[in-house]
Amino acid sequence: VWLFVDGLEIGPLSIEPWGYRTTLFVTGGIVIAGSFFSLRNGKRQGAQQEKRKVIFRRDYWLYYLLTFMMGSRRHIFTTFAIFMLVQVYGISVRETALLFLVNSLISTFVLPQLGKLVARFGERKVLTFNFAGLIFVFLGYAWVSYLPLLYALFILDHIFFGFNLAIESYFQKIAHSPEEITSNVSMAQTINHVSALVVPVLGGILWEQIAPSATFLAGVLIAVVSLVLVQFIRTGTVPTPTPVAVD
């Protein structure tokens, strides 16, 4: 939000008089204060904390892998796509802010329609389209130098984030109980965090040691592997094996 306001150059809210370091400290302080406020006012008196167990099943292997792959492609986008636009093509703060604003506005109208696509065509077909499209997006990042087209790829890449709901929809269909849905969706966030630790480091090494295009070609590899994996999606009835519970 602050970047957008600065991009519009609205007087006292502009970053320039403050400097980026001060702006980040102030913004971080506001976030921390809001977190403490939420913790203090979000507790219910007398409420008992429910202890959940994460149930790992072999039936869920595809869900775990797709979650990791989706997290990996996400960090190619969030870490390196915008970095390329800023470092290589020198886009301004205003252009960056407006680009994110356009992403948000388009997502507001497009994302609600994705659920209808999943319901109509099924998770496998929707995710096949998603990862096939990502191959061309990452190839574009690697080889295209026409800035307006890169903007379009950036927006399309952001829209593809919404296809993550097809993975969650798939898991809801194969889960053995509602309790396992809750615990494993929480585990999916942990898997995403693992990819957040691995992908930026490896991508940065490729960027520095080889070329920026190498990072996005690695994204192509992620998309290709994901495209193969989604062909294993089946949403029929599955047998109930003995689960492994982890506190």
Describe the secondary-structure layout.
Layout: H1 2-7, H2 20-41, E1 54-56, H3 61-87, H4 93-121, H5 123-143, H6 147-160, H7 164-174, H8 178-209, H9 212-230, E2 244-246
Antiparallel strand pairs: 1-2
Descriptors:
247 residues; mainly alpha; Growth Hormone, Chain: A; two-stranded antiparallel sheet; 2 strands; 73% helix; 2% strand; globular
Explain what this protein looks like in three dimensions.
By secondary structure, this protein is mainly α. The chain has 2 domains: 2-39; 55-241, MFS general substrate transporter like domains (Growth Hormone, Chain: A). The chain is 73% helix and 2% strand. The protein has a two-stranded antiparallel sheet with strand order 1-2. α3 (61-87) packs antiparallel against α7, α4 crosses α6 (147-160) and α5 (123-143) runs antiparallel to α7 (164-174). The radius of gyration is 21 Å and the shape is globular.
Instruction: Give the strand tally.
Output: 2
**Which structural category fits the helices and strands?**
mainly alpha
Main beta sheet: 2 strands, antiparallel
Integer average pLDDT? 81
Number of contiguous helices: 9
CATH topology of the largest domain: Growth Hormone, Chain: A
CATH top-level class of the largest domain: Mainly Alpha
Strand content: under 5%
Number of domains: 2
User: Rough shape?
Assistant: globular
Radius of gyration: 21 Å
Please bin the fraction of helical residues.
Answer: over 70%
The first-to-last residue Cα distance is 39 Å
Architecture (CATH level 2) name of the largest domain: Up-down Bundle
Strand line-up in the sheet with most strands? 1-2
In N-to-C order, the SSE pattern is HHEHHHHHHHE
List unreliable stretches of 5+ residues: 4-11, 237-247
CATH superfamily of the largest domain: MFS general substrate transporter like domains
